[in-house]
Amino acid sequence: MDARSGTTKLKSAELESAKLESAKLELIMSFGEDRIIRKSPEEIEKMRRSGKMVRQVLNHLKGVVAAGVTTMDLEQAAEKLIADLGAAPAFKGYYGYPCVLCTSINEEIVHGIPSEKRTLKTGDIVSIDCGVVYDGYYGDAAITVPVGEKLTAELKKLLEVTEASLYKGIEQVKIGNTVGHVGSAIQKHVEANGFSVVREFVGHGIGTKLHEAPQIPNFGKKGQGAELTEGMVLAIEPMVNSGRPETKVLSDKWTAVTLDGSYSAHFEHCVAVTRQGPMILTQ
Ligand code: MF3
Ligand code: CO
Fold this sequence. Notes:
With about 280 residues, the chain is an alpha+beta fold.
């Protein structure tokens, strides 16, 4: 499944109108250039610098998350830190997206827009997705964190399984494997634990643009899609629902939520394909 056949797959499936909205959005965001752009070791080094900045922001925000804090508080903390680092935010202005972070609470999957009206409460989970560009190269990563200490056993498991599935995918980032090896490993781990993977939103190549080819679905079969070759950099980002996999996009045209109202978690890393195996750039 390359970037194009990924599209065909979405188009041929009989998606309900709600799902079509989110699929369209994802396709608009991830298309343009189909060509996979491999990076030199020097470019990968630059991407590691951007990746480390994103991690610094996420680590800082983890400490800010608490009951009573709004998602706009997180946004403002991130905006300041990114500026202090001398980097630029990757998401703000991207297809008109208004903020530097995506903050998605509970049943929100991805692309939640920070707001002073959204206050975190004990027992919530919040996914924080951040991207920066520094010296022309992008970094993109996401975490999902609990608010307070009183997380239900099911939510604790959802966070653990989603993060572990990301590492299962990363283990498959080897020269000669395919995009399908990554998706298959993620999907297997998630479904073995009774959860489901979102289909309409996928990971992506990354480099001098936030979204490059190929698309990286969190499902699939070994051997499907583009072969992984030295110098590719992949943003792998499993989105995992505690209930059914279907999604819809809210009237703000951004926030993707689970159709059944179940909870959703999201973890993301940028990973380079090297002769030594997977190199995580966002740590
Ligand atoms: N990590 C997400 C992605 O790669 C965040 C994009 S938010 C947007 O799709 F605003 F930039 F679209
Ligand atoms: Co991404």
